[in-house]
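HUMAN: Please help interpret these tokens:
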Amino acid sequence: MHIPMNSYQNNKAKLILKNVSKSYDNLLILKNISIDIKEGELITLLGPSGSGKSTIFNIITGITKMDSGDMHIDGKISYMQQKDLLLPYKNIIDNVSIPLIINKNKKGQARNIVKPYFKEFGLEGYEFKFPSELSGGMKQRANFLRTFINSKDLMLLDEPFGALDSITKSNMQKWLLNVRKKFNSTIMLITHDIEEAITLSDRIYVISEKPASIKAEFILNNKNKYKFGSDDYIKLKKDILNLL
């Protein structure tokens, strides 16, 4: 299923996967996966847990090699994994600064670079707190800011809000949309939450059970049509459910 063109169609491609396949121990995990993402887009890979979505991210980042297929990447990738990877013995500003420190910036210089972003990311006043002093939502903001500092060119987010309660998740989704609009970042997100996918995405790729293949692509041209509870929202959710 394919619903044609979105407003990003004429933007340059930041990532193209074409007919990518991957097996582990003779078990086929990915089968002919073809995905593209344009500059400024937010696309979602939506599918059941364990269907191979994270394997796609691992191939994009070079952690895992594909068996066959082609890939084109334009720009630098940053990857925010499911786990909370904030270092417990470092305060938040130094956690966020880690990508800059790795790139040979001195500690004071790195802090000066990241500090202006703390207000934009809702973390002002938390610079010198430790991860244990932050709520789940605040930790995810810090995780996201560190990912952003590493590269806002193309960000891969692997179920970033999966561990949060429903109220915090809803607030974080609104926050992500605002941040994304302000910085015009290109984002690919993994989720198995249909409502999250509809709320956040410009396009949704529905992934099958293993061996994972693309079952459908949905393009959400007019986000106002897909507001929670609208007829279009309900129909789209039903269409997706029928594929899973």
Remarks:
- The domain at 1-76+153-244 is CATH 3.40.50.300 (Rossmann fold).
- The chain has two domains: 1-76+153-244, 84-150.
- The longest helix spans residues 166-183.
